Amino acid sequence: MTHPLVAPLRGGLIVSCQAYPGEPMRHPETMAQVAAAVVDGGAVAVRAQGLADVQLVAGRVQVPVIGIWKDGDAGVFITPTLRHSRAVLAAGADILALDGTERERPDGLTLAETVRRVREESDAPIMADCDTVASAVAAAEAGADLIGTTLAGYTDARPKTDGPDLDLLAEVVAALPGVAVVAEGRIHTPAQARAAAEAGAFAVVVGTAITHPSTITGWFDRALRSS
Fold first, then answer.
1. Number of domains in the chain
2. Of 38, 98, 191, 222, which is the most buried if we count CB atoms within 10 A?
3. Is residue 1 part of a domain?
4. Coil, helix or strand for 174?
5. pTM score, two decimals?
């Protein structure tokens, strides 16, 4: 049975509102404003990073907030431990997102153990950010409500594709009938978002192409300079 917070996301656009440390937009207030703007544009949910951002965004939008806490930049760093998971939910996230790969987690718990422990304390839906079919299946078996292709190409398990890994998406959808499989990662155009939907995605996450002006500006600059 689909969680009541997950069901309304079907067929919709989720926007990841993040900025990296040291960037001009790296401020919770700015990210909250961006989140409000994308909801005005039709986003059915937003993804926010960091406790301050999650808390502020949750107070500004009327759609589900998918919260993560990135701690570090290598290995398992997306909501890597049970402690991080508890903090993200305490900050006001409606949906908890965490690393869903089969790699060793910093606190020694397995993904299944982490999900079980979270479930003992909260009924919030859980999104697992996966990198392979195997990790997606394992995350679904562990009880994750949403399975994302978020980390495809960002671990050693698969090569990084130019654009979304639609092959992986289709394989995960086929392996997990009835499960909410979310396409995420390198979706840079409306056409790519549509292709992900046609490949069976329950919902589509777009981040950089909507919320990261520095990267978008670079795309246009390189196009002009290459002519």
1. 1
2. 98
3. no
4. helix
5. 0.97
